[in-house]
Amino acid sequence: MLTVHCASSLADLAEEREQLNAINHASRLPDPFSTFEFYELYFQHDEFFRHGVDTELWFLTVREEGRIIGYLPLRRVRDRALGIGCWKVEFFATHDNDRPHLVARPADEERCRDAVFRWLHERRSQWSFLELKQQPADSNLRKTRVFSAPRYYVRSFPNLENGSIEVRWNTLRDWFGELSKKMRKNLGRQFRALAAMGRLEHLASSDPAATPLLFELYCTIEARSWKASADAAISRSSRRVEFFRELLTPRSPMRVRIDLLLLDGVPVAGLLCGAFERRLYGLHTVFDNAYAQVGPGGSALLFGMREAIEGGYLGFNLLSGFRYYKTRWQAEVTRTEAVQVFRVGRARFFQALLGGLRRSLLSDQEEDVDFNLARRESARVIAPIAAGERARIESLVAELMQLGVLLEGPAELARALPFDIRRTRETSELAAAS
């Protein structure tokens, strides 16, 4: 017989971390975001998790004869609907991860799901709304038979899709050759235009001694990026900064690599990736908005693609959002839905009905936008770098050189990249326009 235990603190599960990680390793979707180490870092540093105030951890473990066979980390959050206080249950980790799911060995998935849903049903007085975001078509959490009418109202909505590149090429040039003609032309043209603006260099490492310094350089770009004005930067919160710093330490389940593009010694684009079990995860990217027309973000992602191929990874997971862009990089898109369960008669239920009525009266046809709206609406004029900031950047780069971090200059880039980086009249004009 299966039993479900609810832990309100990760300390209650610390002695069972190896059990939990072993189940993740044996599951259909092993990933770094389902490891005990990731949950620990997230629990300590999530900027939205207010311990003991508005948020309560509901880490559910399914056990058979005392042994854990599956787990579903949730949290209960204080919510409001139609001006009335209520409780919402959702995944514990709601951002900086990939498609949260119930973790179990394939043979145990269904019975673990049924046990967890029964447990939630039996404690329905403690919540009025359950939301499970980013569930793909094959997710077992989409089968919600226990939540049947008349007690519940269940619906689903399209959610952020995942974009992943399955690596099947031996060289970066092989991959580049399979891109569309337009994409190949744009990548080469924009890189040449960026290189025409000054001395372009590439700096990268996954050495834990170097990544903290690279991260400091990465953060210098954020103040000049569109993400700063869109509240999408790592630096938007001190707790978020600490979370990413901890991902660079031995506590992290991933080996983090940071790539930077420097123009005349100043970082203008960066990429953070995490390696876990032969898969590479694109965690975050940033670029200086002053150079937006010459695509520095794409140039940084190009080096992530090179690492995915030359590092022998099985796949490069670009996580969620921006489908229009990732498909151009050969990413396969997995659509997801948010599964929502409402207790009938509660404020959240009536709010959902009103929302559905509003959408039926108004045109709710979603436009497949082929651009980043937040980036387009962000400020385009960025202040120049202060003298003190430039000096700090130079000091950090000098420390990295002392650690032996490889700096690729124009000659090395010319040999490594799958296109000619010599400037042309077209790229010189594009560089001047930027």
Describe what is shown at a glance:
By secondary structure, the chain is an alpha+beta fold.
Describe the 3D structure:
There is one protein chain. With 434 residues, this protein is of the alpha+beta class. Helices cover 35% and strands 27% of the residues. Strands 1, 2, 3, 4, 5, 6, 7, 8, 9, 10, 11, 12, 13 and 14 form a 14-stranded mixed sheet that branches. α5 (181-195) packs across α15 (425-433) and α6 (211-222) packs antiparallel against α13. It is elongated. 38% of the residues are buried. The model has no long low-confidence stretch (mean pLDDT 92).
Chain-wise SSE layout:
Layout: E1 2-7, H1 17-26, H2 36-45, E2 55-64, E3 67-81, E4 84-91, E5 103-104, H3 109-122, E6 129-136, E7 152-166, H4 172-177, H5 181-195, E8 200-205, H6 211-222, H7 226-229, H8 238-246, E9 255-263, E10 266-276, E11 279-287, H9 296-310, E12 315-320, H10 323-326, E13 332-343, H11 347-361, H12 373-377, H13 387-402, E14 407-408, H14 410-416, H15 425-433
Parallel strand pairs: 4-6, 11-12
Antiparallel strand pairs: 1-2, 2-3, 3-4, 3-5, 6-13, 7-12, 7-13, 8-9, 8-14, 9-10, 10-11
